[in-house]
Amino acid sequence: MWLLRVPFALLAVVFLILAGCRSEEDTVFMFSYFMGNGETGLHMAWSEDGINWNALNDGNPLLEPAAGRDRLMRDPCIIKGADGRFHMVWTTGWTDRYIGYASSYDLINWTDQVTIPVMMHEPEARNSWAPELFYDEENSEYLIFWATTIPGRHSPIETSPGEDHYNHRMYYTTTVDFETFSETRKFFNPDFSVIDCTILEKDGKFYMFLKNENPIPPEKNIRYTVSDNPSGPWPLNVSEPITGDYWAEGPSALIVGDSVYVYFDRYMEGRYGAVRSADMKNWDDVSDMVSFPRGARHGTAFTVKQSVLENLKRATE
Hints:
By secondary structure, the protein is mostly beta strands. The protein has three helices and 19 strands.
């Protein structure tokens, strides 16, 4: 037999290489999003290159909304937790003082949908919009952060009846198990109305992408700030806009190869856009390169193992 003629040391190397090949599973990119007003539920798409995104389940929802008074599932944010589960939070309604939550091990079977009463202690709070998740490895806890308007609480901005006098700031809570939560605290308090914050870790730094929501003069663009810690403090002097001469919201950042893509909803145009950077300083608009399912709204990009995607495909055939 040829195995008997091969030196044992060489055989050991070969077996280690083969074992490594078997243990490292390829990954793909996923994108959670909503459509319409959020009444249909959770939609998802997948991509191998971060540019071309393909709808799962023929574009139909994979999970119907069941939490909250209005039964909406807007701005669904999904991350893979340290416990091996996928955790999802979302906006349940336009005027709710709580957010939605559910978890899954496979993105197919989900726990019961519940509400987290993030602003119930503030009777004047008008909303709890676009919650996002980030796992803080150093403190072994999850950050949940969202935008809320509390009349008279925040530094004033010039607004209008058309904007319904919203003036948002970011709030947050922490949890280790999604059963008990810390006291709600202010997360990011600039001198402008801010919504849709999302955090990306890269090279030991934490980048928070956000929307300047000021209506007069209209900003409606994506900017960022950088911190050494995901829970802050976050510098209030943010970057210049990284998006172009159009209105953008709902940023989501993803590392693809040597570049970072920031995807966003070009909501006035009914399509998705993106900017890309290799150095986190210079940003190229690649909106005309990316392709998303028609009607996709405010989603979150994340990475999964190839087997998770294949199981999803089989479950929706």
